């Protein structure tokens, strides 16, 4: 007697699916899922996006969270919401949620909703610019409350040197150079170095660093990654040292990096792991309290980048820094 068997998902109970489809069976909730494709928003921001009262938005978020469609992310005293990071099993529930996400992502966002999202990002960006304008003279001191420059700069530089020896890169873009402390490392290795920053005050300090150290192969651009994209430039390597936690939409940096990279290029990131030290927002101008490694990996995958080597550095003050590389395939 011959028996046959089929491979079934780890969970085969359709009862588990009912809350998911019930929670997603509302046009507004589907739009919420859509705007959370890459971004993380708080309740107040989502209320602003959809022009509704906070109590109503909180109800929708509670239902979606209970069904597993969203997960909360604490940023100090505030709660933000994002899509779940770990949906990699073959359980029916994970399969259903992934299918909902893939389907809803095919629908373009309404023009007004896109404008509302851009408005919130600009509010975040202005908050960051204002901080650095106020504290430009104390930049290094403020940053080293969290991590001394050398603690993350040296491991990042070592990784770049190792990759450069193998890849023979020629051009590099640094996003958010700050005072320009990392530019001498890049200028020594690369023929062409470009650095972009949206803070005039920090660019002035980076320019002074270039003059003081005789760097004549560095170009400084005031703006954001969109500014560099508009110039039509591409690079072999893109570097973001302790920058992501200052930008309005970290996930978009991965998309822009992928667009700015040559085939076979690499995006190297050093940034904080997720933490709960809320004072960093007021004292260091942080918009985000670090990131889960899975977040960076997911954003990279969404941008078509493949995760490579990773290094984690524990600091005495309770912070942890992650150094990551993400590759654009040939």
TrEMBL record:
Residues 9-104 form the HTH arsR-type domain. InterPro entries: ArsR-like_HTH, HTH_ArsR_DNA-bd_dom, SAM-dependent_MTases_sf, WH-like_DNA-bd_sf, WH_DNA-bd_sf. It comes from the Bacteria. The lineage of its organism: Bacteria, Pseudomonadati, Pseudomonadota, Gammaproteobacteria, Pseudomonadales. SMART domains: HTH_ARSR (SM00418). PROSITE patterns: HTH_ARSR_2. Signal peptide: none annotated. This is ArsR family transcriptional regulator. One of its GO terms (molecular function) is DNA-binding transcription factor activity.
């Amino acid at each position: 007697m011959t028996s046959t068997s089929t491979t079934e998902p780890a969970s085969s109970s359709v009862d588990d699916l009912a809350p998911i489809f019930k929670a997603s069976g509302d046009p507004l909730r589907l739009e919420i899922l859509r705007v959370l494709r890459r971004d993380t928003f708080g309740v107040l921001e989502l209320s602003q996006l959809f022009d509704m009262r906070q109590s109503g938005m909180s109800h929708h978020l509670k239902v979606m969270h209970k069904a597993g469609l969203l997960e909360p992310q604490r940023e100090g005293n505030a709660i933000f919401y994002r899509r779940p990071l770990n949906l990699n099993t073959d359980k029916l529930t994970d399969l259903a949620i992934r299918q909902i996400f893939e389907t809803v992502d095919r629908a373009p966002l309404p023009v007004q909703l896109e404008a509302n999202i851009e408005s919130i990002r600009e509010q975040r960006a202005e908050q960051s610019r204002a901080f650095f304008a106020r504290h430009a003279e104390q930049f290094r001191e403020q940053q080293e409350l969290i991590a001394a420059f050398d603690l993350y700069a040296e491991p990042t530089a070592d990784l770049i040197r190792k990759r450069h020896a193998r890849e023979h890169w020629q051009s590099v873009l640094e996003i958010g150079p700050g005072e320009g402390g990392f530019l001498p490392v890049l200028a020594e290795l690369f023929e062409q170095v470009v650095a972009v920053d949206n803070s005039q005050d920090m660019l002035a300090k980076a320019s002074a660093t270039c003059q003081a150290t005789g760097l004549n192969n560095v170009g400084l651009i005031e703006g954001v990654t969109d500014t560099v994209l508009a110039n039509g430039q591409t690079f072999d390597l893109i570097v973001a040292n302790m920058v992501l936690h200052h930008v309005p939409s970290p996930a978009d940096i991965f998309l822009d990096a992928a667009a700015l990279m040559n085939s076979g290029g690499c995006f190297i990131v050093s940034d904080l792991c997720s933490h709960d030290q809320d004072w960093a927002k007021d004292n260091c101008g942080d918009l985000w309290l670090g990131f889960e490694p899975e977040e960076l990996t997911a954003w990279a995958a969404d941008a078509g980048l493949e995760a490579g080597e990773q290094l984690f550095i524990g600091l005495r003050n309770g912070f942890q820094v992650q150094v990551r590389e993400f590759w654009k395939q040939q």
